[in-house]
Amino acid sequence: MKKTLLALALLLGLAYTAGAQTMLNAAGATFPAPIYQKWFEAYHAAHSNVQVNYQALGSGAGIAQLTAGTVDFGASDMPMTDDMLGKTKVKTLHFPTVIGAVVPTYNVPGVTSDLNFTQKALAGIYLGTITKWNDPEIAKANPGVKLPADDIVVIHRAESSGTSFIFTDFLSTGSPDCKSKVGAAAAQNWPVGLGGKGNDGVMGLVKQTPDAIGYVELIYALSQKIPYGAVQNASGKFVKADLAGVTAAAAGTAKTMPDDFRVSITNAPGATAYPISSFTWLLIPVQYQDSAKRDAIKAFLTWMLGDGQGYNEGLFYAKLPDAVVTKEKKQISMIQ
Amino acid sequence: MSNLRMIWRKGLNGLMLTLTGVAALAVVSVLFAVLGYLIWNGGKSLDLAFFTQLPKGEGETGGGVANAIVGSLKLLSLAAVIGLPIGLLAGVYLAEFGGKTFSFVTRYTTDLLNGAPSIVIGLFAYSVAVIPVRHFSALAGGLALAVMVIPITVRSTEEFLRAIPNSLREGAMALGASKWKTIATVVIPAASGGIITGMLLALARVAGETAPLLFTALNNQYWSPGLSQPIASLPVVIYNYASGPYDDWHRQAWAAGLVLLSLVLLANIGCRLVINRRGVRSV
Amino acid sequence: MATATTTIERAAPPESGPRALLYRLRHGDEVAHLVTLIFAALILLITSMMIYELWVASHATRTAFGFNFFWTSEWDPVFEHFGAAPFIYGTLVTSILSLAIALPLGLAAAIFLAELAPRKFSDTIAFLIDLLAAVPSVIYGLLGIFVVVPLMRSTIGPALKSSLGFLPIFKGPNYGLGFLTASIVLAIMIVPYIISVSREVLLTVPRDQREAALGLGATRWEATWKVVVPWARTGIMGSVFLALARALGETMAVTMVIGNTPRISSSLFSSGYTIAAAIANEFAEATGDMHRSALMELGLVLFLITFILNGMARLLIIATDRGGGRPS
């Protein structure tokens, strides 16, 4: 008895000792979480003294915790507004990491083919004006598909989300109603529907609920093998999200990327562009007290812009355009 | 007295009594259903990897919850170190020393604390232990759990100390022992079985708490060294995995649930058997 | 040789000898008294700190909205309008409904265990039911998501709709998640409290009460329902308040099955939100001072409600103990 207690005490004592590691804590978006987790794992395998603990709590939480100073860096699919930037104690830099796509994924009984969605259809569904799957707005984009007369179960994000921002940003460009009723922001006042927690929560709800529709990042729909629809882009073509479409959407930014990297590429021009594409950013404070953390972050960012980008396409995120990468590398030197 | 009325009353009697039996059966069946589901679904997913590996990234299959199991143990040991002494000594005060009004106020406040929603305790721990130091930590999580452990420990300690007959105390004092010596060397050891089981029950109760850990200990993909890093724990991992879409996560959630439930139930069964044998009732 | 007397008197501190030892021992008592008193006072300190923190942290929304906070429904973090009505509604609906389900079930089971079952059997079953109370809430949430929600969607919901679908509470789409599901899960969680306390209270009812009723010709049920249960009335009420307080504060099991939408709806199939679930989901992302203050105010409200309920429960249960002649 005494021996087991001693052994237990020893074990716990070991558990208490601090390691010689540099531990970085980060919180933020679920949109890029799969690629980020892969990156942090790969980076740790190559540099075993650096561990990045990334908690995918949502873009809003990422921004909030960064502002409160409880995490070392944040991640968001929604660029911080000037207001938000003003609230941080230390100046914050945006570093685009990947380009991803938000897709409308659905679970309609009897429908196995890909559905086409116009911007108007999606706006109507999420505003609650379109309530049934066989509504004319949806039907006319999908001739020949037998749509049931069921009520649409709308799934959105429960918490403040960058994915929501991207989606509503897209909807607002075509629907002034959407802009006023729901607003292009991360925290929404959704008129209808159920709230899921994180991209994975929404994906889970869509998967389990018949007649559901939800918006998630591409990799989530692909990994779950749940059908997702094509969306009509600015040129009128229905594009299903893929690497080519997303890269085409970001093509313009190679030349026009602003210095602070805050840009929206929803509804981008181009016949092959996928309209609900977006950059996603790491939010890095410009100053670190702990030099070990600073060096680790700078090293990681350099790796991310180089070797890291090689992992993107495997998870269906597009690589950053070369011009953007060059510009970001210059920004790394700003971190003190 | 009419025969019809008699039949009605007898019939009602039979019906209602049967219904009460059905109700009791229903409630007990729920317990067995809970256990059954967890054993079936969780048991399928238990393997060595589950116990020894760290979690894999989003969407990847495999990996385990080793860090969450160790994390929960670490948080519980923190809660024990911080909360149990306070609970014990306060219980000693209430049972052995207490003045009239102060005891009443303390008891009432302890009940108040006991009934506080766990999420509110999490908010408190966040304001007190996370904001000032600007990071999530195992210590903050342990603190939140300690606050929950204290009222349970106080009540059970007091109850078991009170159950020790006064004759024991008087005998010791008659032999020349001072009051505190009596308490320390006679009364507490006599009540020790009950007190320890009370402490174990308190720990078992907070082992399953999720809400207070959400903004204090947060979560961690890796091992959490020391006390000032975020740390993984079984309840938080179950919550996250259950809410996701991945079948592999669901599988692991069931397994983790089985592990957690087994620990909690074993502690409860063991402790309650000890307590019942000593004949002290506990609510 | 004089016999050493060990009379303990309050005298001036002696310098040496056996008296000095005694004095130090007595001083040890004072120290022990003080030390344990300090730890007891720590509990008071922690609790008051908690209330203070909540009060201070919620200052912004308390001054901005005043009492309107409680009946406005708009919860808009972007424009900083906060109204807690949907959360209060959800909390009240799920708690009351869960009680409506758990009370008849729990009371019936308690009656069975106290009146009908043989003592040994009753004790074993009561033991098992106490185990139900020990199951962590996240496990109930797990079962809620994977068992109750699909059941609600496929079986219970349609059954209710086809039989009672004309009632406004059963109108509207049934997603499986929502007020009704949350209430069912909560009911399972609180039923052990009702059974445990009610059973104990019923067992304290004096034998002669029962026997007098039976002697007058009452059936077993009539004796129980009309004599025994009313006698134990206050204790049972106490258990109800205890269960209610538990239901109100429950976070995880509810947030996993209620749908997390701030909405006031007459349909029980609708998704909703509770105070505890809202705090759990939104706190991590509350940037603005107003948002955080609003959530803290919600926490304060919840704390106060459970405080009052627990206080009443304690008083009622103590009153019953005294009434039954049991030393408390």
Q: How would the blueprint of this fold be written?
A:
The complex is a heterotrimer of chains A (336), B (283) and C (328).
Chain A: H1 2-16, E1 22-28, H2 33-46, E2 50-55, H3 59-68, E3 73-76, H4 82-87, E4 92-107, E5 116-117, H5 119-127, H6 136-139, E6 153-157, H7 162-174, H8 176-181, E7 194-196, H9 198-208, E8 212-217, H10 218-224, E9 230-232, E10 238-239, H11 243-250, H12 253-256, E11 277-285, H13 291-312, H14 322-332
Parallel strand pairs in A: 1-2, 1-3, 5-9, 6-7, 6-8
Antiparallel strand pairs in A: 3-11, 4-8, 4-11, 9-10
Chain B: H1 3-45, H2 48-52, H3 66-97, H4 100-115, H5 118-130, H6 138-163, H7 166-174, H8 179-207, H9 211-214, H10 234-243, H11 247-278
Helix pairs in contact in B: 1-11, 3-6, 3-8, 4-6, 5-6, 6-8, 7-8, 8-11, 10-11
Chain C: H1 18-57, H2 59-65, H3 68-71, E1 75-76, E2 81-82, H4 85-116, H5 119-134, H6 137-164, H7 179-203, H8 207-215, H9 220-231, H10 233-249, H11 252-257, H12 275-282, H13 289-323
Antiparallel strand pairs in C: 1-2
Helix pairs in contact in C: 1-13, 2-13, 4-7, 4-10, 5-7, 6-7, 7-10, 8-9, 10-13, 12-13
CATH class value of the largest domain in chain C? Mainly Alpha
Global geometry of chain B: flat
What is the helix content of chain C? Answer: over 70%
Please tell me the overall pLDDT of chain C: 85
The unreliable regions of chain B are none
Largest sheet of chain C: 2 strands, antiparallel
Return residue spans of chain C where pLDDT drops below 50 for at least 5 consecutive residues. 324-328
> What fraction of residues of chain B sit in β-strands?
under 5%
CATH third-level topology of the largest domain in chain C: MetI-like fold
The overall number of domains of chain C is 2
Find the CATH superfamily of the largest domain in chain B.
MetI-like
Please state the second-level CATH architecture of the largest domain in chain C. Orthogonal Bundle
| N-end to C-end Cα span of chain C | 50 Å
Rough shape of chain C? Answer: flat
Roughly how many Å is the radius of gyration of chain C?
A: 27 Å
Number of domains of chain B: 2
Provide the descriptors you would attach to this structure in a database record.
heterotrimer; A: 336 residues; alpha/beta; 8-stranded mixed beta sheet; 3-stranded mixed beta sheet; 14 helices; 19% strand; globular; B: 283 residues; mainly alpha; MetI-like fold; 11 helices; 77% helix; flat
